[in-house]
Amino acid sequence: MPPPPAPTRPPSAQGPFGHALAGLLDVLVPARCAGCGAERTQLCPACRHALAATRPGPTPLPWAHAAAPYADPVRQLLLAHKERGALRLAGPLGEALGRAVRSALGPRAAAAPLLLVPMPSARSAVRARGHDPTLRLAGAAARSLRRCGLDARAEPLLRHARPVADQAGLSAAERHRNLHGALTVLPRARRDLLGRQPVLVDDLVTTGASLAEAARALADAGLPARAGAAVAATAHRPG
Questions:
Q1: Where are the alpha helices (DSSP H) in 4-89?
Q2: Rounded to an integer, what distance in angstroms lies between the CA atom of residue 21 and that of residue 13?
Q3: Cα distance between residue 181 and residue 201, in whole Å
Q4: Could you report how far apart the first and last alpha carbons of the chain are, in Å?
Q5: Is 153 helix (H, G, I), strand (E, B) or coil?
Q6: How confident is the model at residue 26 (pLDDT cuts 50, 70, 90)?
Q7: What is the pLDDT of residues 54-76, one digit of tens each?
Q8: Residue 115 · residue 37 · CB < 8 Å
Q9: Contact 235/69 with Cβ under 8 angstroms?
Q10: Which range, 156-165, 174-183, 205-214, 224-233, has the best average confidence (pLDDT)?
Q11: Are 155 and 134 a contacting pair, CB within 8 Å?
Q12: Which of 17, 90, 112, 121 lies at a C-alpha separation of 20 to 30 Å from 133?
């Protein structure tokens, strides 16, 4: 039997004020584990172990690694953070993302300071959610990497250059065509990346089309990404 989802926030708990209220309620009111529904904790020991103990592995893009498969309880944890305002999950999810960064870079992780570049969220999605989940995870991952002795920070250096169609139901080839040319690099990118290794980060990799487009945008600006990383990746299906 699949685990019950974490409670959905009421409509009044959306937007920046709503997320601040949700965070206060998470502290004052006993919660259920966002991964499995266990009572009186937002992240139970079993789900924390599932998130932290999985060995990072490759995605459809050989240069990008994911910390865990996109399956419960990790799937539920990502959805709770992204869509239901469970902002305290950013810490453990960011630690998982940091592990994926180290896995993707290997020995190069300590070669030069790191700059984690999150995949950009659409402005409408940020307004609807009241926060930018990928940027929040990138910041948490950078903090976890600093705790490991690495020089790392996160900066949003990509933006959308044009609208894209809904990716749901598209094949891998169709996703790549849909996204090609959709991202561009902010003017300050060259300054912020000076002397740092750019690493693209995201919450989830499906076909790899989004990370590939981000890598294309950085490369066209003369700032090639050293690696990519995500919290989770779906099982790869060709096509």
A1: 15-28, 45-53, 74-83
A2: 7
A3: 19
A4: 31
A5: strand
A6: low
A7: 999 999 999 999 999 999 999 99
A8: no
A9: yes
A10: 224-233
A11: no
A12: 112
Burial of 198 (0-12, 13-18, 19+ CB in 10 A): buried
Segment (H or E) for 147: helix 133-147
3-state percent helix, strand, coil for the chain, nearest multiple of 5 = 45, 15, 40
The two structure tokens encoding residue 222: 């003369």
Name the residue with tokens 């990716």. Answer: 167
Query: Which two structure tokens, joined as six digits, stand for 220?
Result: 């066209």
Tokens of 75: 């799937």
**Distance (Å, whole) CA 172 – CA 175:** 5
Find tokens 């690696």 and name the residue: 227
Question: Any idea how long the chain is?
Answer: 239
pTM (2 decimals)?
Answer: 0.84
